[in-house]
Predict the 3D structure of the following.
Amino acid sequence: MMAEKTKLEKRLDEHLERALQMKPSSKGKLMPSLLLEGSTGTGKTSITRKWAKDNGVNLCHIQVNLWRGVSKEQVEAAFSEEASLKNLSLQNTILLFDNFDLGEEKTRALFSDLMEHHVLHTPNGELFLPEVLFAIAVVWPSGEGHPLVKEPLTEAEKRKFECYTVDYDKEEYLDYIRKYYSKKIERAKETGKRERVLVLRRRMAIAEHILKHPRFQFKDDHGFPTYSSISRLLDGCDGTKNDFLDHWDSCTHAPDLKPVMEEILSAYSDIEE
């Protein structure tokens, strides 16, 4: 039985279907880019990457915050490299501009033609990329603020996108976690890694227990996403309750929530082999 798609996956399906119907063969009618607004840990990037893989889409992932202070000439040179051109020219390509609002406004402007008109400026002139269906930009929610966002998106920049808000959703996260670990467990079984299977089963069980508990919140009092911290912590522990809690202080952004997590896990028992 096929798992229910998340709301974000359904929105991406709709955008892809429209983009394929109006796929450009020359400059002109192009699909608007999509702006995904949401706090860290809502799955904007991870769900988009999984969706692209499931749909056979070539996803060109660009971390905009890594281009701070880079000149126009350096960007053009980087995207003119043979490997970059080959990736951008693959069939059904989607550009994913991650942490878009963490880039400087002048840096974001360097990508605007690529997003709006599918034109890549190179030292040898303009190169039109008809295989690029549309772009996705991932940003922090408007109005919430983020210490690293020095130059928020302007209204003019936002008008270039169709905006979609990605919120926290416990049921969707539970479904996502089950699918994520189930696939890993099946691969471990196929290769005969019994110990690995047990660790993965324990990680999935403890994640489900935490998410289902009424005391669990997606954000702490400072607005940090507690679940993204928990997810990173789980990937580094053996899946047992004690190992999970032992690593809490060093692996999360919310040390003050440890007593709450200890309460959540007080009645939890580790899965035995």
Observations:
- The chain is about 45% helix and 15% strand.
